[in-house]
Design goal:
Number of helices: 4
Number of strands: 0
Largest sheet: none
Structural class: mainly alpha
Shape: elongated
Helix content: 40-55%
Radius of gyration: 18 Å
Length: 71
């Protein structure tokens, strides 16, 4: 089962009323992991991409030397 499938399964089970600790134990994850994905589902349930991984890289690098200055 892929990581995305595990996330979808955790949310499906939680919405079905299952206890987060039981879900976590069954999927080999922590209860915090379950709560995080249920929360993201709630925030983005209108999109199908809620279970996909996001980049953790910063959106900008304010301390980086500008191209003009490098020249």
């Amino acid at each position: 089962m892929s990581e995305e499938d595990l996330r979808r399964e955790a949310v499906r089970r939680r919405l079905g009323g299952e206890n987060p600790a039981d879900i976590a134990a069954g999927l080999g994850r922590t209860t915090r992991w379950v709560r995080n994905w249920v929360a993201r589902y709630g925030e983005e349930s209108d999109r199908d991409s809620w279970a996909q991984s996001r980049s953790r890289a910063p959106h900008s690098r304010p301390g980086q030397t500008s191209v003009e200055l490098e020249r």
